């Protein structure tokens, strides 16, 4: 039981690294700047709920699609997922200034229903939950079991829920610059995770120890 908890904990850290909570928090704060605090919290809660449902659906159906629809094995998915993580992290490291400087003032013109509808794409998918997250969740489920993967997803999204609920307070205390630095540090670890996934996949395909 204790070993299972450790597996869940470290898997949750992996999922959190891919979700990039601090980087997405700064982007979501910029996109919701000027909105009432109540509406901002509702927006963040809706984004998290939608992202959570997407991950759960893929967690329980990913193995089926992998084995019976696309007919790829776990090592193929490791290589593809690792490559996606590397590309995603490098892109965020080198080419993320466009979103940071983009004007989102037009979001304030929408009513609450329209704002929530327009924000789910791209905020929930693919900004918060993207292909890298979905591939990582399936790999975790195949390696550690569905119970470990489900526990890791719950832990990761619980942390995200707390972080996003206190987003405005965290922004005031820490500042956008520190959140931005944390985000960039996370991208480096995501690249490392992607490289590791690809190496394990390549070794598995060629039967190397």
Automatic annotation (TrEMBL):
<keyword id="KW-1003">Cell membrane</keyword>
<comment type="similarity">
    <text>Belongs to the UPF0056 (MarC) family.</text>
</comment>
<feature type="transmembrane region" description="Helical">
    <location>
        <begin position="120"/>
        <end position="140"/>
    </location>
</feature>
<keyword id="KW-0812">Transmembrane</keyword>
<dbReference type="Pfam" id="PF01914">
    <property type="entry name" value="MarC"/>
</dbReference>
<feature type="transmembrane region" description="Helical">
    <location>
        <begin position="6"/>
        <end position="31"/>
    </location>
</feature>
<feature type="transmembrane region" description="Helical">
    <location>
        <begin position="146"/>
        <end position="167"/>
    </location>
</feature>
<feature type="transmembrane region" description="Helical">
    <location>
        <begin position="79"/>
        <end position="100"/>
    </location>
</feature>
<dbReference type="GO" id="GO:0005886">
    <property type="term" value="C:plasma membrane"/>
</dbReference>
<feature type="transmembrane region" description="Helical">
    <location>
        <begin position="43"/>
        <end position="67"/>
    </location>
</feature>
<keyword id="KW-1133">Transmembrane helix</keyword>
<keyword id="KW-0472">Membrane</keyword>
<protein>
    <recommendedName>
        <fullName>UPF0056 membrane protein</fullName>
    </recommendedName>
</protein>
<feature type="transmembrane region" description="Helical">
    <location>
        <begin position="188"/>
        <end position="206"/>
    </location>
</feature>
<dbReference type="InterPro" id="IPR002771">
    <property type="entry name" value="Multi_antbiot-R_MarC"/>
</dbReference>
């Amino acid at each position: 039981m204790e070993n299972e908890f450790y597996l869940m904990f470290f898997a949750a850290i992996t999922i959190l690294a891919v979700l990039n909570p601090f980087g997405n928090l700064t982007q979501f704060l910029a996109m919701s700047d000027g909105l009432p605090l109540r509406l901002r919290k509702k927006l963040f809660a809706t984004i998290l709920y939608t992202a959570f449902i997407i991950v759960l659906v893929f967690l329980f159906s990913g193995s089926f699609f992998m084995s019976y629809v696309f007919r790829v094995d776990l090592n193929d998915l490791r290589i593809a997922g690792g490559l996606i993580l590397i590309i995603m992290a490098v892109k965020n490291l080198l080419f993320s200034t466009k979103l940071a400087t983009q004007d989102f003032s037009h979001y304030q013109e929408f009513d609450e229903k329209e704002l929530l509808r327009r924000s789910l794409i791209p905020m929930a998918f693919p900004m918060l939950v993207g292909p890298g997250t979905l591939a990582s969740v399936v790999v975790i489920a195949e390696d550690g079991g569905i119970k470990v993967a489900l526990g890791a997803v719950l832990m990761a999204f619980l942390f995200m829920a707390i972080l996003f609920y206190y987003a405005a307070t965290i922004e005031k205390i820490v500042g956008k610059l520190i959140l931005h630095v944390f985000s960039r540090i996370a991208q480096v670890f995501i690249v490392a995770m992607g490289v590791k996934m690809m190496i394990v996949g390549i070794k598995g395909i060629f039967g190397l120890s």
